[in-house]
């Protein structure tokens, strides 16, 4: 006998979709405009750091657009082909965004090495002023996501993109000032490599977390021992085994488990199930499926 318990309540820690829609749209518009400015300024000034940062900002625009699309898809209703809907698209997008960043790092480092070998004159003042504008734009966009960054992997990714870009822009400002006064054009390439290292550092955890969810691993914030201990507190539950926890999306988690109950308590299984559902909601698990077993039955599962 199987019992399915589904709940789709909004939690206080869940990101507010309307707020995030506005944040993503603002981020896309501002960064698209800034990419155009950086490309023009980079071509005029001959700055590699501006051009590579423009390329990175373009990847940010793509990432923000993908994340926004994923949030839209996550709200789509389930159907006969996709019984969970398109919730998993948020996980795919977070992984794809991490890969975009890593590819961008490779491009930045390659171009910096080429520029070391073939230095070109750079207008340091132009570089500094454009990058200064980048600090304001990226800093503002990061601020839009800061409140919800711990509630969703895609929001965290967007926040990291923008926060890293603000730091990168600061580095470019410094390099522009140094080049303006010293004419040491190699500084531009050195800053580009530092930019790549900073991006890679900020991206690594995002890549690991998204890959973990993609492989149906237990979400990082989930503690199986804590979950089992909480469920064992429910009246009528003798034991729990064959428990699986995974992510349906970057904001929703699911659980399946075999519940061992005494034969005389099977009539109260709906009440037990209701109690367990509310305990799981407090543990950020919104979808649960339970299979009851009697305590006088022999368990044939390997993890009993």
TrEMBL record:
Membrane protein topology class: Multi-pass membrane protein
Pfam families: Cation_efflux, ZT_dimer
Domain (Cation efflux protein cytoplasmic) ranges: 219-282
Signal peptide: none
Compartments (UniProt record): Membrane
Keywords on record: Ion transport, Membrane, Transmembrane, Transmembrane helix, Transport, Zinc, Zinc transport
Transmembrane residue ranges: 23-48, 54-71, 91-110, 122-146, 158-180, 186-207
Domain Cation efflux protein transmembrane positions: 27-212
InterPro entries per UniProt: Cation_efflux, Cation_efflux_CTD, Cation_efflux_CTD_sf, Cation_efflux_TM, Cation_efflux_TMD_sf, CDF/SLC30A
NCBIfam families listed in its UniProt record: CDF (TIGR01297)
Protein family according to the UniProt entry: Belongs to the cation diffusion facilitator (CDF) transporter (TC 2.A.4) family. SLC30A subfamily.
Name of protein: Cation diffusion facilitator family transporter
